[in-house]
Specification:
With 285 residues, the protein is of the alpha/beta class. The protein has a seven-stranded mixed sheet. The protein is 54% helix and 13% strand.
């Protein structure tokens, strides 16, 4: 979780404490506030100290309990500011993967150059429908979210039209592990590798593979996507981080450059993918 996010959540907690302490009829203790809300005292403490993220319902209830309902719009705006940086999977996937894919598609539509680092999966912009289907199904199972797999697959495949439009550039680096990861049956992975070989020849695509044995300037951390120079999206197990702070974006640009220095391109990348494809065929009954 980012330092900026922690600081913003702590600031929201301080604002909640101010409301409790400035109640027009007299300040409330933490225990009194908890009783008014019907919450454990620990929840009041965690919200005020920035150790827990409030829900919109929590903030409305807090404003009412402190007899200052007019404070709710400000609290909600602060929460939206938090969520623009850290978007929890629990909230994003409440209605399934389709909405998440559509939000990302909107960012793709306004982007000219997309730089991607993937350490364990084939980049979504290159995924076949079958490969994407298995990825979405596994993620939905982990997150215990609605299974709207086919809608999510359609949204992801539709986004790939940008590969052929000619007005965008896709600069993608993947660790070799992404070529081996059995997140799908071997036959599906084989077709996915064939797909990689075909898109690598497009004039809109620059595909680099970091071989297992390549010397690394930095460790291969989480996957991330750099949209022009204005936004970075990073995936973690609990959330997506949407980062638009210029200095933070610059950090990810330096990380991407460092990883790119270890990658092979062109014929070397083609040979590496083909070798993995042949090994997969040999291991498949």
């Amino acid at each position: 979780m980012s330092t900026d996010f922690q600081q913003a959540r702590a600031a929201l907690g301080m604002r909640l404490r101010e409301l409790r302490m400035s109640r027009p009829a007299g300040r409330l203790t933490g225990a009194e506030m908890a009783r008014r809300l019907g919450w454990p005292h620990s929840k009041v403490s965690k919200l005020e100290t920035g150790k827990q993220t409030a829900t919109p319902e929590d903030l409305y209830a807090w404003a009412v309990a402190s007899d200052q309902p007019d404070a709710d719009p400000d609290l909600q705006a602060r929460l939206r500011g938090l969520e623009s940086r850290v978007r929890s999977w629990r909230r994003q996937l409440a209605s399934g993967h389709r909405a998440v894919q559509e939000a990302i598609s909107a960012e793709h539509a306004r982007t000219q150059t997309l730089r991607i680092w993937e350490n364990c999966l084939v980049a979504g912009v290159f995924q076949t429908a079958d490969y994407a289907r298995h990825v979405f199904t596994r993620h939905a199972t982990l997150m215990r979210s609605p299974q709207d797999t086919e809608d999510a697959v359609r949204a992801r495949i539709q986004r790939q039209e940008g590969l052929y439009a000619g007005d965008k550039r896709y600069r993608v680096i993947m660790w070799e592990a992404a070529l081996h990861a059995m997140v799908c049956p071997p036959t599906v992975l084989a077709a996915q590798l064939d797909r990689l070989l075909s898109v690598a020849g497009l004039d809109t695509v620059e595909l680099g593979i970091v071989p297992f044995g390549a010397p690394l300037r930095i460790h291969p951390g989480n996957g991330f996507w750099i949209y022009d120079q204005r936004l970075v999206i990073v995936e973690d197990w609990h959330a997506e981080l949407w980062i638009d702070d210029a200095s933070a974006v610059a950090t990810y640009e330096r990380a991407w450059d460092s990883l790119q220095a270890s990658a092979v391109y062109g014929a070397d990348a083609h040979h590496l993918i083909s070798r993995v494809r042949r090994e997969l065929r040999a291991d498949t009954p």
